[in-house]
Amino acid sequence: METIVRRIGLVAHDAMKKDMIEWVLWNSERLIGHKFYCTGTTGTLIKKALEEKHPEIKWDITILKSGPLGGDQQIGSRIVEGEIDYLFFFTDPMTLQPHDTDVKALTRLAGVENIVFCCNRSTADHIITSPLFTDPTYERIHPDYTNYTQRFENKGIISEAVEQVKKRRNKSENNISK
Questions:
Q1: Above 70 in pLDDT, residue 34?
Q2: Across the beta sheet with 60-63, what order do the strands follow?
Q3: Is 40 annotated for ligand binding?
Q4: What is the pLDDT of residue 178?
């Protein structure tokens, strides 16, 4: 049977790190052979736990910066670049995060890129046990944003801007010469 390597982002708020580590250890046999991108502290703890449980396995884990220090944005960048297929982000619903805007941006990017995204253990359990997780023929649908990215074509916005600058420059030069 053909296997597939899923590229998985793992992120957890401080109050959820233990839950994330337990979830990863519980599902470690299912996670063998996949590629991981983790924010700093979460990744360091997960790597240590997995190496302790499975010392014979070489885990492919990329540890980024701590979430509030840019790690959330590094995860987001990898989502946009198509390097992450799944994002398991265990969020703490009871604590306001100082980097909440980064968290919202990461959530938004997961939606924009149509990747699998979950923010709690129950959803993660359902995702990892889904037949689609191990189905080598399953591919997510990549949204087509062509209309959005080309929304200014044939609108004359550049020529209008050039003309506006010329008018301002002429007006400024006329005021200076007076």
A1: yes
A2: 60-63, 35-38, 7-12, 86-90, 116-118
A3: yes
A4: 67
Residue 8 dihedral angles phi and psi, to the nearest 5°: -120, 130
What is the set of active-site residues? Answer: 72
- The answer to whether the annotation marks 62 as part of a ligand binding site is no
Place of tokens 């200014």: 152
DSSP string, 42-72: HHHHHHHHHHHH-TT---EEEE---GGGTHH
Helices (H), 56-156: 71-80, 100-112, 121-129, 131-134, 146-149
| Structural element, H or E, at residue 176 | helix 157-177
Q: Is 126 annotated as a binding residue?
A: no
pLDDT in tens, 69-95: 999 999 999 999 999 999 999 998 888
Name which of 40, 115, 51, 120 is nearest 81 in CA terms.
115
Give pTM, 2 decimals. Answer: 0.87
On whether 99 is known to bind a ligand per the annotation, the reply is yes
Beta bridge partners of 82: none
